[in-house]
Write a structure and sequence with these properties.
The complex is a heterodimer.
Chain A lengths: L5 E11 L6 E12 L4 E5 L6 H8 L7 E6 L2 E2 L5 H7 L3 E4 L13 H12 L4 H14 L16 H12 L6 E5 L7 H18 L2 E6 L2 H7 L2 E6 L2 E7 H6 L4 H9 L41 H5 L5 E4 L2 E3 L22
Parallel strand pairs in A: 3-8, 3-9, 6-7, 7-8
Antiparallel strand pairs in A: 1-2, 1-4, 4-5, 9-10, 10-12, 11-12
Helix pairs in contact in A: 3-4, 3-5, 4-5
Chain B lengths: L9 E10 L8 E11 L4 E5 L6 H8 L7 E9 L2 E2 L5 H7 L4 E4 L3 H4 L6 H10 L6 H14 L5 H4 L9 H13 L5 E5 L7 H18 L2 E6 L2 H7 L2 E6 L2 E7 H6 L4 H9 L47 E4 L2 E3 L19
Parallel strand pairs in B: 3-8, 3-9, 6-7, 7-8
Antiparallel strand pairs in B: 1-2, 1-4, 4-5, 9-10, 10-12, 11-12
Helix pairs in contact in B: 4-5, 4-7, 5-7, 7-8
């Protein structure tokens, strides 16, 4: 197998609270590889740590502990100068296309800025490269002279994509990149991501809360809950035969735009709220909301098991055929 | 549902909403020729993309638009015209006849009052109860919306509650005076998907239990499919389609509804290219004179250069497309029709 683009082991990212008395464990022991040219989907709800994982992948946040290898180099072994050169191959595109562009810079200036920072190119070369990138994302060259407010949201997101292309990225972290766009134009942007990947062989870490979007674009999907991965496997495996109860609940909670008789999935509504990542539950973090939870789940942290080829899960009760039938129990009243 | 036998709780007739232009600029017409009804207890989804006029419509129904808004037509709520009744009458109707739930519960709640006091305030405007009775009613309302330990929660501040709990508080506040109609503008958009599922179930259950009609304003067709009985699709300030929800999803009759449904990714979809609608929504100042969707429509023909009427095509279906009978459009499931 080829060498991963990024290899992450036991990644932990913690943020101290304002008064320093406690810590939020945003990411708490996560291991995965991103393979060249693949789309690695990350789904989860707010507070699951999915954006923190993304920011750490491009060096915007430093790990509290754990190792990250970029290509064949350990991040911790790199000098500042080496990291400066290396990190340009790991780029990020953000959710809000407006906030990511400086309103006082022309599109051309925004496009050449990353190249100026990377250095080593003449002004004319940077301009040509920028204009070529603009065409590559489906915008006309004359857009380069405009300012962000003259562009639509979809066009701005295309510019943000064009900005990172000249740096020959090996990995682009896409954090909720279509969430701010209207449904009717999302498809265009997602198609563009696919075309660029076919063309350039770039890998994506595609972070989103919208499971149907992630399912459509990803080769593999990681499901996050309270700072940990609860399941990681091929997209078909995750969507068609999820192994973790949280994945089952997440998939069944997604409202489907289908008439009643075609909605196959029975809704499994989770009780209660997502616990605070500052004070996560003991044992399996999902046990407070899990219909399958047993006393063991509250005390023992589940192992990260490879139950099927390339398909891992962290659950005491999961089997390779999915979850056992739900235990019958008294319904719990809400007060 | 749209039958004339039952008197509708809401009857919107020829509603138009415009905003006065700034110095010398022409007024912008945002919503045009809006006609629809909601039956008692009915759950209706008002869907469309940003800028289609759905939220401004919701605010107009509550008469919450700023003074610069120019409103034409009638908004008959239980026979009274919300567009013209006096301010005093409006205050008596808000909360009691019609209530609203907003997208962002944190900005809709006052951070310096306890949630109990805020709900009690809504109750106090319409009923004269003793302090103790008032508190009991509010606690019962908190329990109805599934808030655990409602006695304790009464005295908590909004920041002490999670996003899902805050939205439950908003729902309790909207329901406390048992209104005939609740307008919910993107009530689950700010929530996580597992919490969204809880709130959708709650709204559906409460509507069934209390007979309150619901107008769901949302861009999320999945939410409409799972909670509503009827779906009204808006595009560029106009209703383009009005149909029972399953019919709209399976066999839409307007090309825009079809395009929107085809643009949605689903789990079961074949991997491949994502569908989308080419082009962009026209801006309010530059509306096409004919069909407003024609510049983006694959079926546009000569007949589409004339303004389009919202016409009846069945007892319970309306569509604003002169060519609707000329083609069969794909719905949420290609090749499957109702």
């Amino acid at each position: 197998m080829t060498r991963p683009v990024v290899s992450v082991r036991d990644l932990v990212v913690r943020f101290p609270s304002l008064d320093g008395s406690s810590e939020v464990r945003a990411v708490d022991g996560v291991s995965f590889d991103i393979r060249p040219g693949e789309t690695f989907g990350v789904i989860g709800e707010s507070g699951s740590g999915k954006s923190t994982v993304g920011r750490t992948l491009v060096g915007l946040l430093a790990p509290t502990s754990g190792t990250m290898a970029f290509g064949d180099r350990d991040r911790a072994a790199m000098t500042r100068a080496e990291w400066r050169t290396e990190r340009r191959h790991y780029q990020m595109i953000f959710q809000d296309p407006n906030a990511a562009l400086n309103p006082r810079m022309t599109i051309l200036d925004s496009l050449t800025e990353p190249m100026r920072i990377a250095g080593g190119r003449s002004k004319a070369d940077m301009q040509d490269t920028a204009l070529a990138a603009l065409e590559k994302v489906g915008l006309r060259r004359d857009m380069a002279q405009r300012y962000p407010h003259e562009l639509s949201g979809g066009q701005k997101q295309r510019v943000n994509i064009a900005r990172v292309l000249p740096l020959s990225p090996r990995l682009i972290v896409c954090d909720e990149v279509v969430a701010a766009l209207d449904v009717s134009i999302r498809g265009e942007i997602l198609n563009l991501f696919k075309e660029l990947q076919d063309d350039l062989g770039v890998a994506y870490a595609f972070i989103a809360h919208d499971i149907s979007v992630v399912a459509q674009i990803s080769d593999r999907i990681a499901v996050t809950y309270l700072g940990q991965f609860v399941e990681l496997g091929p997209t078909e495996g995750i969507i068609d035969d999820p192994l973790h109860p949280y994945t089952v609940a997440l998939l069944s909670a997604e409202p489907q735009p289908l008439p009643t008789h075609l909605r196959h999935r029975r809704r499994m509504t989770l009780e209660g709220d997502i616990p605070s990542p500052a004070n996560p539950p003991s044992g399996c973090r999902f046990h407070t909301r899990c219909p399958w939870a047993t006393p063991d789940c509250a005390s023992l942290e589940p192992e990260w098991r490879e139950l099927k080829p390339d398909h891992r899960v962290a659950c005491h009760h999961a089997t390779e055929k999915g979850m056992p039938p739900l235990p019958v129990r008294e319904s719990v009243s809400s007060d | 549902m749209t039958g004339a036998a039952i008197r509708p709780i809401l009857d919107v007739r020829d509603l138009s909403i415009g905003f006065r232009g700034r110095r010398g600029q022409p007024a912008l017409n945002i919503v045009h020729d809006l006609n629809f009804r909601i039956a008692p207890g009915e759950r209706v989804g008002l869907v469309g993309e940003s800028g289609c006029g759905k939220s401004v419509t919701g605010l107009a129904l509550m008469r919450l638009l700023p003074g610069a808004a120019q409103i034409g037509g009638q908004i008959l709520l239980d026979g009274k015209d919300m567009a013209t009744v006096s301010q005093g009458e409006i205050r008596r109707m808000r909360g009691k006849k019609i209530a609203m739930i907003f997208q962002e519960p944190m900005s809709a709640l006052d951070p310096v009052f306890t949630v109990g006091e805020q709900i009690a305030e809504a109750l106090r405007l319409h009923e004269n109860l003793s302090k103790a009775d008032e508190r009991d009613r509010v606690i019962a309302a908190l329990a109805d919306v599934g808030i655990p330990a409602p006695k304790r929660r009464y005295d908590e501040y909004p920041h002490q509650l999670s996003g899902g709990m805050r939205q439950r508080v908003m729902i309790a506040m909207a329901l406390i005076n048992r209104p005939d109609l609740i307008i919910a503008d993107e009530p689950t958009t700010a929530l996580d998907v597992t919490i969204q599922a809880q709130i959708m179930d709650l709204l559906t259950r409460l509507s069934e239990d209390t007979g309150t009609a619901l107008l769901f304003i949302t861009h999320d067709l999945g939410v409409v499919a799972e909670t509503c009985q009827r779906m009204i699709t808006m595009y560029a300030g106009e209703i383009v389609e009005d149909a029972p929800v399953d019919d709209a999803l399976l066999s839409p009759r307007h090309p825009y509804t079809s395009g929107l449904l085809r643009s949605l990714p689903h789990f079961n979809m074949e991997k491949g290219r994502f569908a989308h609608i080419p082009g962009r929504v026209p801006s309010p100042g530059a509306m096409p004179t004919g069909c407003r969707f024609a510049p983006r429509c694959a079926h546009a023909a000569d007949a589409c250069t004339a303004p389009q009427e919202l016409r009846d095509i069945a007892a319970d279906r309306r569509v604003r497309c002169v060519r609707a009978d000329d083609f069969v459009l794909d719905g949420a499931v290609a090749g499957e029709t109702a």
